[in-house]
Amino acid sequence: GGTGGVVDGTAIATCLMYNTNQEMIEGYTKSLWNAFGSKSGAVFTGLGLFLVYALPIFLTFSKDSKIRNRSFIAYLAATIGRILIGRRMKHVVWPDAFLHPLSIVGFNALTLRSLQLHQRNALTWKGRSVTATQTTDAS
Description:
By secondary structure, the chain is mostly helical. It has four helices and two strands.
């Protein structure tokens, strides 16, 4: 019955969720299957992120100069947005903002892995089975 909101807490708190890349992969894999409310929500979110952030960089290699130029502008706009957010949040900006399309591809791969392992009831965390008690999508 309560309400909530989003605030920028970077001035008062820090958080290191994972110590190694493997911990990060396992940590995201265990929960991404339900991070977007449903399987279809995860698919649509991943597709949207790919279209906005990753596809433009791939299309900058097109032989068609119109597609190449428009894609470069889209990539540049996404990168500038990422730089502004990174600076505001006091995150590393270089080279992270420029490599963000690769991060999106990796994030989508983790989401797909999470969906697949959840479907097979094979999710684990720190060597223990993760049993999902609730899903919001029967698909």
